[in-house]
Amino acid sequence: MTSFLSIELKNIIIDAKPVVSGAGCSAKENLLFTEDEEFVVVLENGAIPRTHRVKGTNYCLINVFPNRIPGRAIIISVIDNLVKGALDQALQNLNLLMGFPENLGLHYLPLFP
Fold first, then answer.
1. Among 101, 102, 49, 104, which residue's Cα sits nearest to residue 77?
2. What contacts 13, CB < 8 A, 6 or more positions away?
3. Does pTM surpass 0.85?
4. Could you tell me if 107 and 56 are in contact, meaning their C-beta atoms sit under 8 angstroms apart?
5. How large is the average pLDDT for residues 95-105?
6. DSSP tally for the chain: helices H, then strands E
7. What are the boundaries of each domain within the chain?
8. Closest CA to 33 of 59, 70, 1
9. Residue of 12, 68, 84, 102 with fewest CB within 10 Å of its CB?
10. For the segment 27-36, what is each residue's pLDDT rounded down to a tens digit?
């Protein structure tokens, strides 16, 4: 189990349909996040993602845990869906489309104290 905890992002393969192969698999690869994504934080080994840590932010916390079935993993992620909802996704996509920094306007807390 120790070797499992040293898993690297480049070794994670996510495939919801075991019958998909070829073009279907390669099309999914570009949908996976990479280590340089600003709003995705991969936690240290054993740390459980908790919603109170993303409250009022645009961040996604994620971690991978071993499953009791060999060769499988449990991936847990959390977001604040009131912030990381349709509006912030639209703004993030607009920023990318217009050539602005991806995070422009997304670091302000929308919560009332």
1. 49
2. none
3. no
4. no
5. 91
6. 3, 3
7. 2-80
8. 59
9. 68
10. 555 555 566 7
